[in-house]
Amino acid sequence: MRLIIIGAVASGTSAAAKARRNDENAEIIIYDKDSFISYSGCGMPYYIGGEVEDADKLIPRDPAFFKNKYNVDIFIRNEVLSIDPIYKTLEIKNLSTGDILQDHYDKLVIATGASAVIPPVKGVHHKNVFTLRNIGDMKQIKAYINENAPKSAVIVGTGFIGLEVCENLKELGIDVTLIERLPQVTPGLDGDIAVYVEEHLERNGINIFTGISVVDIKEDKVILEDGREVEADFVLLSTGVRPNTELAVKAGIELGVAGAIKVNEKMMTNVKDIYSCGDCSEQFHVVTGKPVYRPMGSTANKTGRITGDVVTGGNLSFRGILGTGIFKIFGMTVALTGLSEREAKKEGYHVVVCHNIKPNKPEYMGGKEIVIKGIADKDTGKLLGVQIVGFEGVDKRIDVFVTAITYKAHVEDLFHLDLAYAPPFSTTKDPVMYTGMILDNAIHSDRKLISSDELEELINSSKNYQLIDARAASQYVQDHIETAVSIPHAKLRDSLDKLDRKAITVTYCNKGVTGNAAQNILLNHGFKEVYNLSGGHKNYRKSRKSL
């Protein structure tokens, strides 16, 4: 068998390596139009900032490595121009010599990746405007910074890569401004969690403009759509990527609803003996089962391995993704998996959410607060998605949630997990368990939650309600939700006769625990409709700021 793979980064080289492990006799050839292969794209921001000092550390393998270890021939600077699926031939251009050559395949893998989206903005071709998608981009950015010592930078877009570059530029002493056309940073998060990230960025000296677009880029500034000008010696366009599908489309290969190459669970396209993997191919979501496009290095490696197995007779199948992501920004860790609240509602789920604010381990062991937003389906009790921000232990928790959602766990299952506990690592009831307990109560008991948005709707309605601030009186005086009355938890039992048992009642505290305790007292004394404010006063104030 002659196997040809187009593309030699994460998915293409993974496919080649797995194919060779399965079949020692196959001819395996990879063509790539770039000069660098099998590199760590996710490490590029840290080279720009100097945390990774040697660029070669991000490029651990070259064509000679694959030839020596796997007997795979990789031809760099060779661009595949066309595919003939009837005769199973390729037309290839050697970009170094200009020569055109032909090749043939028995099976073909398209792993052409994705390219940075260039927004329709004037001035994007100035020498100080960059995208960051490959090693060549990274080296150009590094050289520009070293040679020009920019004092100010604008990053357009606030996805993972944009924020990671933001941190690294700031570490170099560059004044950084983020510009996001959406009303919040980190578009993958819900607004009530994104606000924690935005405030953290501002505390670290980052200038932020949201809900506005750039219309023009000059050599020393960018122009916003409302006419405001922002200084910028350096501009990074971090506005997403698009799958490289032109070659596939010309060959009659079908695209999916997300605009990437449509494949089945065996990574097969609609054309016989042609497969696709990595950032150019479509995935499907574990929760909804629907097609999505979420290009990630981890997914590229996984789909590449599956493809290499399938083309050599193996039985691996792709099982979907959750869109899991994690990144670090000025010491804060931000992670997400599964559906966001807005995505879940769009999909038609009867959504219940909680905001669990707990230390990652006991405070006497230096525990630091983490905020967990859990999204569940009220009808089935299944966990749909989770978002976390915090400074320690976020990665540990998100991976537990990923596993739970993957295996279709119900919220009550989280409490029954036998998670590792010792004071240096966790609290006795881990924040994962607490999240399950809160959601389970909200779904399966009368311990209902109310979100900040729902509380606002109630306040602005004509319904009969009472809002109880169960914190200490001094905290109420310092700040409280409008229309709330102060009844500290310790005095609530003595104040029951002053309350309207027929009214909708909402309790709250700082973060939710004492509010729940107050809710329990009221329910146990015959109050019929009592809600606890999710995430308490702290999350309410954050949520209001996100609007």
TrEMBL record:
<dbReference type="InterPro" id="IPR036188">
    <property type="entry name" value="FAD/NAD-bd_sf"/>
</dbReference>
<keyword id="KW-0285">Flavoprotein</keyword>
<keyword id="KW-0676">Redox-active center</keyword>
<dbReference type="InterPro" id="IPR023753">
    <property type="entry name" value="FAD/NAD-binding_dom"/>
</dbReference>
<dbReference type="Pfam" id="PF00581">
    <property type="entry name" value="Rhodanese"/>
</dbReference>
<protein>
    <submittedName>
        <fullName>FAD-dependent oxidoreductase</fullName>
    </submittedName>
</protein>
<dbReference type="InterPro" id="IPR050260">
    <property type="entry name" value="FAD-bd_OxRdtase"/>
</dbReference>
<feature type="domain" description="Rhodanese">
    <location>
        <begin position="461"/>
        <end position="544"/>
    </location>
</feature>
<dbReference type="InterPro" id="IPR001763">
    <property type="entry name" value="Rhodanese-like_dom"/>
</dbReference>
<dbReference type="InterPro" id="IPR016156">
    <property type="entry name" value="FAD/NAD-linked_Rdtase_dimer_sf"/>
</dbReference>
<comment type="similarity">
    <text>Belongs to the class-III pyridine nucleotide-disulfide oxidoreductase family.</text>
</comment>
<keyword id="KW-0560">Oxidoreductase</keyword>
<dbReference type="InterPro" id="IPR004099">
    <property type="entry name" value="Pyr_nucl-diS_OxRdtase_dimer"/>
</dbReference>
<keyword id="KW-0274">FAD</keyword>
<dbReference type="Pfam" id="PF02852">
    <property type="entry name" value="Pyr_redox_dim"/>
</dbReference>
<dbReference type="InterPro" id="IPR036873">
    <property type="entry name" value="Rhodanese-like_dom_sf"/>
</dbReference>
<dbReference type="Pfam" id="PF07992">
    <property type="entry name" value="Pyr_redox_2"/>
</dbReference>
